[in-house]
Each structure stands twice: as C-alpha cells, then as structure tokens.
Amino acid sequence: MQWEVVIGLETHTQLKTNTKIFSGASTTYGAAPNTQACEVSIALPGVLPVLNKQAVECAIKFGLAIDAEIAQRSVFSRKNYFYPDLPKGYQISQFELPVVGKGKITIQVPAGKSTEAYEKVIHITRAHLEEDAGKSVHDAVDGMSGIDLNRAGTPLLEIVTEPDMRSAAEAVAYAKKLHELVQWIGICDGNMQEGSFRCDVNVSVRPKGTEKLGTRREIKNLNSFKFMQQAIEYETQWQIETLEDGGTIQQATVLFNPDTGETRAMRSKEEANDYRYFPDPDLLPLAVTEEDKSRVRAEMPELPQALQARFVGEYQLSAYDASTLTASKAVADYFVETVQAGADAKQSANWVMGAVSAKLNAEEKTIADSPVTATQLAALLKRIGDNTISNNAAKQVFEGMWAGEGTVDAIIEAKGLKQVSDTGAIEAIIKEVLTANQAMVDEYKSGKEKAFNALVGQCMKASKGKANPAQVNELLKNMLG
C-alpha cells in the first residue's frame, strides 16, 4: 500500500514588544530567574490584565502580510489547564474569535534528488494572540525542579495552518518562509535558540488517494529546521510501520529526541473541550478599525514579493536572483545600499550572492556582521567597472577588505594590483610572447583556436596578471592578423 503524509503546523511566534502582553513587565531575554515575574505574571489575587497595544499591532502586521482576514472584533478566552509553570491555572488566549483569520503564504519547495523545485500555497487557518507560560527548570538544585516565571505573560502570536503539507520538505520550506516573514515585518526576532520561534507539527498518514484524515500526533516545540525534518521523517515512518503491522495510532503529544532521532509519546492529546474555554471576564473584546489597519500598513516595509517584482523591473535581475536576494530583509537592504552607492545592479547581485554569502556562511555570520559594508563593496565594484583592477584582482582586494587591511584603493596600491590598460605597454608584452611562442602562433594560423587562448594565457602571465584581459584579446587578434 502507498501512504501519504499529511502535515499541519502551529507556530508560536514571540512578538517583539518591550513588555508583556497583559502587564508592564520586561520581556528581555536572559534575566535571572523570576526577576521579570510581576504581580500579573504570578497571578496575585486582585490583579487585572491590560492588553499591550504593540502586540495587537504586530498581529495586524502579520495579517496584512499574508493577505488575511483581520477581525473587527476578537475575544480573549481562558484556556484552563493545570501545570506548575502556569500560576493562574489558565492561559489567556483566543479561541472562537481570533484577531487574524484565513490567509495564505506561497512557498518554494527546493528540488530533491529525484524531484524538481516547485511552488505551493499554504493556507493559514488563523493567527491568535496569547500569553506564554513559564518554564520548568530541572536539576538547577540537585534532585529538584524549579519554576522560572520570566516568560510567563510574554506575548505570542500562534499561527496555525491547514493540513496542506505532504512532505517534510514542504513543512520545512513553510517554516523557513514564515521565519523569514515575521523577521522581515519586524514582529519577531526569529531567535530559535531562545525560543522566540517554536513549531508544533501535526503529523498523520493515510492511504494514498483517500480523503479521510488519519489520526494525528503532535510533535511539540521544535526549534530547529534540521530537527523538524528529522522528526517528521521518523514520525511518518513510525506511523506507517505501526499501521502496516496491524496497530492503531492513538492521538498524542510527542517529543523529539535529537540525540536518538526518535519521537516518543508524552501524553494523550487534549481536545478543545478539555480546556473548558470561556471568554475572559477581565478583558473587553478587541476592536480593530479600518483606521488601525491603514496606520499599521503605512508603517510596514515593502514585502518580499513586491520587492522581488521591483528588483526584476527596476534592476533587470532574473526572477531567481530577485528571489534569492529577498530571502532576508537584511540581505535585500545590503544589495539595495550597494546599488545606491553607485555599483552595477547585476554585478552587485552576483557579488552579494557569491563572494559575500560564501564568506558569511564559512564564518557562520549574518550579513549584519559582514566586515565589508555595502558602501565598501560598491567601491570595489566601481574599480572593476573603471578597469582599475581585473575580476581576479578584485577577489584579492575583497579578501583584504574582509581581513580589515584597509580601503579598496589602499589595498590595490599595497598589493600592486592596478590593471595595466596602456596600449603601448600591452603591445610590447604581446610582441615578446609572440616571439617566444612561434609554435603556438603557427598552430593558431593553421586554424587551431585553442592556441589563441594559450597565447592569451602567456600574455597574462607575462604581465603578472595585471594586463587588461579585454585589451589583450583585442590587441592579440590584431597583431596575429
């Protein structure tokens, strides 16, 4: 029997606000345990929540970015469950009436070994505001567990998809696209190690060609794209093998162990009615007006899809180059700054995607950490454009700039890389090469084109790589007749 995997994602995106969603306590990461747990965080009797306007604006930004329905009226509810890191005994969330409704995100799924890359639309069911819980800390004291409530009340936007994905590759492509988008519009820092972007993945399998969904198991708190890929692939295979062996799948919450590469059941999966949702009596319904949406829209950056179209139209870049450069807002900004500093657009794109990206990847840095600024890169590209240096020499200059050896012109001077463009000097070099390589000259004249390239190589060698290659080609052809 052939099986089909069905995948949906729930992503907890920590919003980039200075304070918590229902109080003025700080959201700064890394503070000593419980130093950011205010009266609201620890649920002292009589305290009342006050909604953070900045968190609402973040939710509106996301809704606009995915062309979603944004509710004029949404409601906060109490999601009741007992857990040590939830002092109130309930979490304030949104249930029946979320702030963001149906939307969509288009992803590009990379090619596998036996498949071609393709585009797919992933439908967003909803995105709702809620507060985070605290954190259980095990073995901080020998043999004991503690509770750190610094995260309690941190604002989250939980983004839920339809079960549209049919492979681990599609799920990872969606998660990466979402990760890029929330950073692009400035609502999340995207730091997965700090828990700012956490994915729960619902996985089920069904016989290929059938419509009925299988029983799902939810893999919790995946904070790495690599782990997501591994967890989905293991869980899919485990479910298929269980069914083929005559077993049944029980709905459950499972954890992924990166050390073993396996998932294991943690507890049976709750249904919505288990949480006894009811509207929070301490919070009025959230009202979002058209004026609110217009104001937020005016503050948003140009979205990736629009920027891609502009790069193609304004800079005559290929669709592939435009897509690559807009994978990150920081990279797109770096490219635009390079062009605005006077560099050729296509050449800038090639260098940003090539030499700059290669160095950043090798040193595990982001574009923000690049030792070569966009202005400095533009200065280098202009020296290629005005024939001061060759492309090969430019690579040496770039390495020097990366190492902090000085400005473009200073490195060119120090390394003696200035290109020779004087016609008389190049002609003299060519004459010497022709005299010393009569056999190659005879081969060329007898119709062997490869001999010409060999002669060009000899000329470049004789000039120690400093001769202008285009001039060498042109003058050599003239002198060979």
Summarize the structure.
The protein has helices at residues 53-65, 168-184, 225-244, 290-299, 304-315, 319-325, 329-340, 345-362, 374-385, 391-402, 408-415, 423-436, 438-445, 450-462, 469-480; strands at 3-14, 73-74, 77-80, 90-93, 103-109, 118-131, 135-141, 144-148, 155-161, 197-207, 217-222, 252-257, 262-268, 278-279, 286-287.
Describe this structure in words.
Keywords: ATP-binding, Ligase, Nucleotide-binding, Protein biosynthesis. With 481 residues, this protein is α+β, with helices and mostly antiparallel strands. The protein has 3 domains: 3-291, no CATH class; 302-415, no CATH class; 423-480, Arc Repressor Mutant, subunit A (Orthogonal Bundle), CATH 1.10.10. It has 15 helices and 15 strands. An 8-stranded mixed beta sheet has the order 5-6-9-1-10-11-12-13. The chain is elongated and about 95 Å long. The mean pLDDT is 92.
Number of domains: 3
Tell me the Rg in angstroms: 30 Å
Count up the helices: 15
Number of strands: 15
Helical coverage, percent range: 25-40%
Give me the strand/helix succession: EHEEEEEEEEHEEHEEEEHHHHHHHHHHHH
Q: Order of strands in the sheet with the most strands?
A: 5-6-9-1-10-11-12-13
Span of the ends, CA to CA: 72 Å
Largest β-sheet summary: 8 strands, mixed
User: How big a fraction of the residues is strand?
Assistant: 15-25%
Give the class from helix and strand content and strand pairing.
alpha+beta
Oligomer: single chain
Poorly predicted parts: none
Mean pLDDT: 92
The dominant shape is: elongated
Pfam families: GatB_N, GatB_Yqey
Catalytic activity: L-aspartyl-tRNA(Asn) + L-glutamine + ATP + H2O = L-asparaginyl-tRNA(Asn) + L-glutamate + ADP + phosphate + 2 H(+); L-glutamyl-tRNA(Gln) + L-glutamine + ATP + H2O = L-glutaminyl-tRNA(Gln) + L-glutamate + ADP + phosphate + H(+)
EC number: 6.3.5.-
Protein name: Aspartyl/glutamyl-tRNA(Asn/Gln) amidotransferase subunit B
